[in-house]
């Protein structure tokens, strides 16, 4: 039987011990409202690393206070935040997992109530601690407050914020960074013609709409150096007429490749309300399309919850790694379970638990 899920993968100077990775998943668990990780984050991420994941990607982390989806999000705009990530990253390393972090700007979907712990949803009003959101254009996401269009000077500030967060990520010990350009957040808003009607060099053609993302990729590379992999998460389609298509995404991925991106994390949707054909592995064909069209490695995500399903995705050349989200929340030992299912002998079961495997 093949064991592709357990084949190591090397990207630049980093070798992942396997190809079962944890995608970024917001926890809305910051306790002090200043973007600093809490004990929850240590235990949550630590458990999945201990459970055999090849990589753990820390949730969407705001590059500025305004970049957060909610006031309970993590941030990486200060040295205090950076220092608080160090023990988390160190623990992931003791468990043999590569540590990644998703750097994010929520754009017009920022300043909302957190997903749980409140009776409210939608935009958090400014007089309750919310803030004015920003976007490529003053076009609101359905049901959320209207954003303000960014000026060109402010766009340069966004690039600088991603750059400093990337520097802090490396200083904290992260092995790689992922730039969040999916799910209707700021960089996806620039990419999609449905949310970007700018007439300057950041709007209009696909190339112009991709400019901000490419600028951020270049700035990130300057900070992280040549040995550190840089991933980009894209929504490969807006799932609606007039929106981004897989073909557009293949073009963008080609430019990202030229700019030194190492892997595309292929998701979809989130920029506008759309009918998404959700079902087991519903996005793996998009990962396959981006992989084939751009020649870049991809990670597939979306209702991948069974070891054999993951093995099949790799065996059929759709992706180079799988990202297991909600199933990893249900079972933080998913990778260990997958090794059992595939009858693969791994040497990274926690020694503390050796009696369970006798
Ligand atoms: C998510 N997802 C997500 N995506 C992202 O790019 N950044 C994020 O911070 C989050 N946050 C988040 C929180 C929670 C609780 C969930 C369940 C999901 C999306 C996630 O990374 C993944 O793409 C989807 O969950 C689909 O994969 P699964 O869960 O079907 O394996």
UniProtKB/TrEMBL annotation:
- Keyword presence, Transcription: no
Q: Which residues form the NADH:flavin oxidoreductase/NADH oxidase N-terminal domain?
A: 5-341
Which cofactor(s) are needed, names only? Answer: FMN
| Coiled-coil residue spans | none
Q: Which InterPro entries match?
A: Aldolase_TIM, OxRdtase_FMN_N, YqjM-like
Keywords, comma-separated and alphabetical: Flavoprotein, FMN, NADP, Oxidoreductase
Q: Which SUPFAM superfamilies match?
A: FMN-linked oxidoreductases (SSF51395)
Q: Which GO MF terms does the UniProt record name?
A: FMN binding; NADP binding; NADPH dehydrogenase activity
| Superkingdom of the organism of origin | Bacteria
Query: Which PANTHER family does this chain map to?
Result: NADPH DEHYDROGENASE C23G7.10C-RELATED (PTHR43303)
The protein's name in its UniProt record: 2,4-dienoyl-CoA reductase
Give the organism the record lists.
Brevibacterium siliguriense
């Amino acid at each position: 039987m093949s064991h592709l899920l357990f084949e190591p993968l090397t990207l630049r100077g980093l070798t992942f011990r396997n190809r079962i990775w944890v995608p970024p998943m917001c926890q809305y668990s910051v306790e002090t409202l200043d973007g600093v990780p809490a004990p929850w984050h240590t235990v949550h991420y630590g458990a999945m690393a201990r459970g055999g994941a090849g990589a753990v990607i820390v949730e969407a982390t705001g590059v500025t206070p305004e970049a957060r989806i909610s006031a309970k999000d993590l941030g990486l705009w200060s040295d205090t935040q950076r220092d608080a990530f160090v023990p988390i990253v160190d623990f992931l390393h003791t468990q043999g997992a590569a540590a990644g972090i998703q750097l994010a700007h929520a754009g017009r979907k920022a300043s909302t109530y957190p997903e749980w712990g409140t009776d409210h949803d939608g935009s958090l009003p400014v007089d309750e601690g919310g803030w004015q959101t920003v976007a490529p254009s003053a076009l609101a996401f359905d049901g959320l407050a209207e954003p303000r269009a960014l000026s060109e000077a402010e766009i340069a500030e966004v690039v600088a914020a991603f750059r400093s967060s990337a520097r802090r990520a490396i200083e904290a010990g992260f092995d790689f960074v992922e730039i969040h350009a999916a799910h209707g957040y700021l960089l996806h808003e620039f990419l999609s013609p449905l949310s970007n009607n700018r007439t300057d060099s950041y709007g209009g053609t696909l190339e112009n709409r991709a400019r901000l993302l490419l600028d951020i990729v270049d700035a990130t590379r300057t900070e992280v150096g040549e040995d550190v992999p840089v991933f980009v998460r894209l929504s490969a389609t807006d799932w609606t007429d007039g929106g981004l298509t897989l073909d557009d995404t293949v073009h963008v991925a080609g430019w990202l490749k030229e700019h030194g991106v190492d892997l595309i994390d292929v998701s979809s949707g989130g920029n506008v309300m759309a009918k998404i054909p959700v079902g087991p592995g519903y996005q793996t064909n998009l990962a396959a399309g981006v992989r084939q069209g751009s020649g870049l490695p991809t990670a597939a995500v979306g209702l991948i919850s069974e070891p054999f399903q993951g093995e099949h995705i790799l065996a059929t050349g759709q992706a180079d790694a799988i990202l297991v989200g909600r199933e990893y929340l249900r079972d933080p030992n998913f990778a260990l379970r997958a090794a059992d299912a595939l009858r693969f002998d791994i040497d990274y079961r926690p020694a503390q638990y050796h009696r369970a495997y006798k």
